[in-house]
């Protein structure tokens, strides 16, 4: 199932990782894609390798900026919120400032988009949460809470915004540039250890999550759904 040639697709957080993979896959299906992110430098880098996409600087934590952005755009067919910036740590170790920044980025950013996005009837809005919403970690309590809140937001918006469809994709550990901050040997060891513990025997790739996002965007009967793309992580 395809999103359809000529569809206008906005991928927020589209300058790298899951967002960039989603944008590239949508463009391959014939969509007119715009990638948005808050970093002009990262957008410029993405544009060098993805020349067919439009770009827009957008900080979703700024509600006024989100409102102004959508006011000047024609209706989109599909909007994806794929990127966020969150620090991870136990509740007693993570500073309150970092916790609030994480909530602003991943939850309130999505809330702002849900409030102001202009999407054609029958189109879609898709969020990206994470498996910690149902399999919490003592080292990432806040992330689990944010992901659960994001999935609840999507279910409510699926009713409020109907016939626009609203869904969430929930990945497990995915090999994105997020992990490039780790020394390569440490990162690869983490990937191997996690893969060995998963029923699927592998960690996720950005393209795995992108396929799920576009499936939900294209399926006219899917709304209010959270789709796990976690290699079975929620089971173990």
Task: Walk me through the topology.
Elements: E1 8-12, H1 17-28, E2 32-37, H2 40-49, E3 54-57, H3 63-71, E4 76-81, H4 96-116, E5 119-128, H5 141-160, E6 165-171, H6 184-197, H7 206-218, E7 226-229
Fill in the keyword field for this structure.
42% helix; alpha/beta; globular; 236 residues; Rossmann fold
Structure description:
The structure is a single chain. This protein has 236 residues and is of the alpha/beta class. The chain has a single domain, classed as NAD(P)-binding Rossmann-like Domain (Rossmann fold, 3-Layer(aba) Sandwich), CATH 3.40.50. Helix content is 42%, strand content 18%. The protein contains 7 helices and 7 strands. Strands 3-2-1-4-5-6-7 form a 7-stranded parallel sheet, sandwiched between helices. Helix 3 (63-71) packs parallel to helix 4. The longest helix has 21 residues, at 96-116. The mean pLDDT is 95.
Can you write the helix and strand succession as a string? Answer: EHEHEHEHEHEHHE
Q: Let me know the CATH homologous superfamily.
A: NAD(P)-binding Rossmann-like Domain
Report Rg: 17 Å
The CATH topology is what?
Answer: Rossmann fold
Strand order of the largest sheet: 3-2-1-4-5-6-7
Kindly state the percentage of residues in helix: 40-55%
Mean pLDDT: 95
**Which structural class fits the helix and strand makeup?**
alpha/beta
Give start-end ranges of low-pLDDT stretches: none
Total domains = 1
How would you sum up the major sheet?
7 strands, parallel
